[in-house]
Amino acid sequence: MPSLFRFLVFVGIIAGIVYGSMFALTVFVEPNEREMSVKIPAKKLNPQQQ
Asked: What is the dihedral angle through the alpha carbons of 18, 16, 26, 28, rounded to the nearest 10 degrees?
């Protein structure tokens, strides 16, 4: 039983670290906005019907 308790504590600590790091990323990191352009081939815009 002590090994199970130790394992659960270890998993809980790891989950807390992961949750804390994700929370820190959402609070402290701001995404950069920029324009984006995608070239679409003419064949996909006007497919020829057969």
From this structure: -100
